[in-house]
Every structure is written in structure tokens, then in C-alpha cells.
């Protein structure tokens, strides 16, 4: 059975606009696109750390509230909380699940959520699933945030502000210091998604909140394990009350089978690697080298993270440059409108610890051509 006609119509419309997406698996060799910033997913070190384990259960057998809980996961959560200077941590099956669970449950009808306009889709989805009022803040615009707070504060019970410490599409960073001061002074709850900052910034890759010394000023922080950490899953860290609340009310936590033991072992091993390897230093070195090569090119969005974007306005131009990279066996993703605004089409480059200087030079040469 083919199903309703609108499926075919939507696909045709996407194809007509040149926006049809399909799954691919034969990636070009030189990786400037994956989120594996430190190379942990492929360098074998995580496997080495856990290979002595004889018995792996293939599944966790249930949600954490039924049969999927273990002393191991609770101990791991304590270690994660300690590493990130929080009272408590709660592991979710993915960053998407964590954001949806948190944002859909944490605020009620009389609350307000203010979110940066470039925030990740998982946060949007979570907000829309909840009952709170919400407004978007112009990207990184502190004055706009202040106006929204002043305009609304007398009509709501609680205000939550949600930002990413490193924005996934632009690679730039939130003004965390100013945000934490404003939230602190106005009794507003700050939520920071550190998906693209963990492993990259802070002492031993603890994230950007650590680098700015504001970890304990945040109401909640999200750390994901599918990016620099090279495995899978995510944790929300915050107070004991927040953890208890999420165990009771975050539906993506309550109604989903928990991660199996081998995923938890990998998360534990990846945290161990953050402390032990020098991959973080290699990544920082590559970021500095890349920034020195692109100096003066104002089509690049300013970034000190692993993510760098260079504008090539027009979907057609993005297609051309993407295929040039492919010819050179380089994996670089183009980002088209409407994923980004018209005129802000771009290529998105992810730098890694394992990229060589020669590869980075060749990439920049290609862009300059
Ligand atoms: C900022 C941000 N938050 C959350 C997520 C979702 O994390 P996960 O891939 O673990 O579901 C992503 C993934 O791209 C992201 O970029």
C-alpha cells in the first residue's frame, strides 16, 4: 500500500525545489563533516578500555523505572555529576530525547521560555510539546533578551532562558558570562546545551560553562555523547530536585527502554579518555591553524570551536562547492535554505584532532579557488 497522496506530493515538491534529502553511506575519505571532533569513535581507544569485560547483556530490558535500571548507571551518573560540578546527572538515550524530555516538562502554563533563534530542533520540539509560553531571542542579542524579560516578567511565574554554548549551525558561542549574570540577578533559570562544547572547551573537555566558570550558575546543562565523546547518549546535569523531577515527568525518559550496559561502558570509557589523551590539544591546534589560514576572509562566521561556516549565498553555489570537495575526496557538507535563511547558504566545516595540516591547507585552498 502506497499510503496517502500527500506523501508523494511533499516529496515531489522537495525535489522540484532541489531540497530532497536521501541517505548516503559512501562518504568521501577526508572527514571535515562528522561530529567526531576528537576521533574517539574510530581510534579504538574506547573499545580497548572495555574489552576485558566478558559478559555484555545486549539490551537493558526495560525503561529505568521498570527493569532497565542498575547500580552501574547510578554510579556512572554520580561520576558524571562530579566531573561537571553538579549535584546530580540523569542519562537519556540521546541528546534529542534529553532536550525533548526537559523542555516539554520543566515549564507550565504560567511560565515563559526564551530561546535563542538558532537553537537546535530538539529544543524547539520540546518547547512545542509543553504548555509554557515561548518567544525567540535574536541570535546572541543580550539587549533583546533584556527587553523580553522586562516586558514579560510581571505576567509569568518563572522564566527559562535556553542557549547552546556552541551553536551547531554557525559554530559561534553564546555570551555565557553575560547571560549567567543577567539570569542570576533576575532569578531566571538558565539552560545550556553543551552538545558541541563538551570534549572541546574547558578543563579536560568539561565544556564552555566550565571555561567561563559558570557551571553552578546554570539550572540545567546538557552533555551529549554522540559528538566529541565518540559514542551515544546524553546526560542532563543540575540539582537533585531536577533529576527527581525528570525521572517522574520527562516522558522521553519514562517511556523508553534504557541504554544497554555496553553504551554506558562506552560513555564511562570516553570520560576516561577525556582525562588521559591529548586529542583535545591536537584539536585546539588544528582550530588555531585553520583560523590563521582564513584570516581576513569575512565570509567566514567567527568561531573558535570545531565548527566553521563559510557563506556561499545561493543553493546552487552550495551544490557546486560541495561537488568540488567531493571530487577531491573531502567530506564537507553544504547547508542550504530553508535550513538556513535565504542568502546565508553555506558550507559547514568540522575540524577534528585527526585532520592533518596538509588536509586543512588543501581545504582552505579549495575554498579560496
Ligand atoms: C545542539 C544540539 N543539541 C542536541 C542534539 C541532539 O543530540 P543527539 O544527536 O545525541 O540526539 C544535537 C545534535 O545534532 C545538537 O547539535
3D structure, described in words:
The chain is of the alpha/beta class and 369 residues long. It has 2 domains: 25-42 and 278-368, Aspartate Aminotransferase, domain 1; 56-276, Type I PLP-dependent aspartate aminotransferase-like (Major domain) (Aspartate Aminotransferase, domain 2, 3-Layer(aba) Sandwich), CATH 3.40.640.10. 40% of the residues lie in helices and 14% in strands. The protein has 14 helices and 12 strands. It has a 7-stranded mixed beta sheet, sandwiched between helices. It has a 3-stranded antiparallel beta sheet with strand order 9-12-11, covered by helices on one side. Strands 1-10 form a two-stranded parallel ribbon. Helix 3 packs parallel to helix 11 (261-276), helix 4 (95-105) packs parallel to helix 5 (121-129) and helix 12 packs parallel to helix 14. The longest helix has 16 residues, at 261-276. It is globular, with a radius of gyration of 21 Å. The mean pLDDT is 95. Pyridoxal-5'-phosphate (PLP) is lined by residues 94-96, 99, 120, 122, 164, 168, 193, 195-196, 224, 226, 234.
Q: Main attributes?
A:
binds pyridoxal-5'-phosphate; 2 domains; 369 residues; seven-stranded mixed β-sheet; alpha/beta; single chain
In brief:
The chain has helices at residues 5-16, 45-50, 71-83, 95-105, 121-129, 142-152, 176-186, 208-211, 240-249, 251-254, 261-276, 279-294, 315-327, 357-368; strands at 30-31, 88-92, 112-116, 133-137, 159-164, 189-193, 220-224, 234-238, 307-311, 330-331, 333-335, 346-350. With 369 residues, it is of the alpha/beta class. It binds pyridoxal-5'-phosphate.
Amino acid at each position: 500500500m502506497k499510503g496517502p497522496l500527500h506523501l508523494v506530493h511533499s516529496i515531489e515538491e522537495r525535489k522540484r525545489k532541489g531540497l530532497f534529502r536521501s541517505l548516503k553511506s559512501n562518504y568521501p575519505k577526508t572527514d571535515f563533516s562528522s561530529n567526531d571532533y576528537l576521533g574517539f569513535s574510530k581510534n579504538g581507544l574506547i573499545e580497548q578500555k572495555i574489552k576485558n569485560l566478558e559478559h555484555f547483556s545486549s539490551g537493558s530490558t526495560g525503561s529505568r523505572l521498570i527493569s532497565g535500571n542498575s547500580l552501574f548507571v547510578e554510579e556512572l551518573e554520580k561520576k558524571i555529576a562530579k566531573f561537571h560540578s553538579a549535584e546530580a546527572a540523569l542519562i537519556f538515550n540521546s541528546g534529542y530525547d534529553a532536550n525533548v524530555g526537559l523542555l516539554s516538562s520543566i515549564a507550565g502554563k504560567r511560565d515563559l521560555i526564551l530561546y535563542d533563534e538558532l537553537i537546535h530542533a530538539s529544543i524547539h520540539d520540546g518547547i512545542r510539546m509543553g504548555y509554557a509560553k515561548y518567544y525567540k531571542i535574536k541570535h546572541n542579542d543580550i539587549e533583546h533578551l533584556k527587553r523580553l524579560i522586562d516586558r514579560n516578567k510581571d505576567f509569568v511565574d518563572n522564566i527559562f532562558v535556553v542557549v547552546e554554548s556552541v551553536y551547531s549551525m554557525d559554530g559561534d558561542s553564546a555570551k555565557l558570562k553575560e547571560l549567567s549574570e543577567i539570569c542570576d540577578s533576575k532569578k531566571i533559570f538558565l539552560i545550556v546545551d553543551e552538545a558541541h562544547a563538551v570534549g572541546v572547551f574547558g578543563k579536560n573537555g568539561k565544556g564552555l560553562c566550565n571555561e567561563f566558570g559558570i557551571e553552578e550558575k546554570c539550572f540545567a546543562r546538557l552533555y551529549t555523547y554522540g559528538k566529541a565523546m565518540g559514542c551515544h547518549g546524553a546526560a542532563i546535569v543540575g540539582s537533585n530536585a531536577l533529576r527527581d523531577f525528570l525521572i517522574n515527568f520527562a516522558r522521553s525518559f519514562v517511556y523508553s527502554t534504557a541504554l544497554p550496559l555496553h553504551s554506558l561502558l562506552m560513555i564511562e570509557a570516553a570520560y576516561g579518555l577525556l582525562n588521559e589523551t591529548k586529542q583535545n590539544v591536537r584539536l585546539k591546534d588544528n582550530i588555531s591553524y585553520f583560523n590563521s589560514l582564513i584570516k581576513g576572509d569575512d565570509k567566514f562566521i567567527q568561531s573558535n570551536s570545531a565548527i566553521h561556516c563559510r557563506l556561499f549565498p545561493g543553493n546552487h553555489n552550495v551544490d557546486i562547492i560541495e561537488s568540488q570537495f567531493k571530487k577531491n575526496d573531502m567530506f564537507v557538507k553544504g547547508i542550504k535554505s530553508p535550513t538556513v535563511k535565504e542568502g546565508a547558504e553555506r558550507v559547514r566545516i568540522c575540524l577534528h584532532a585527526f585532520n592533518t595540516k596538509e588536509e586543512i591547507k588543501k581545504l582552505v585552498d579549495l575554498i579560496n579557488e
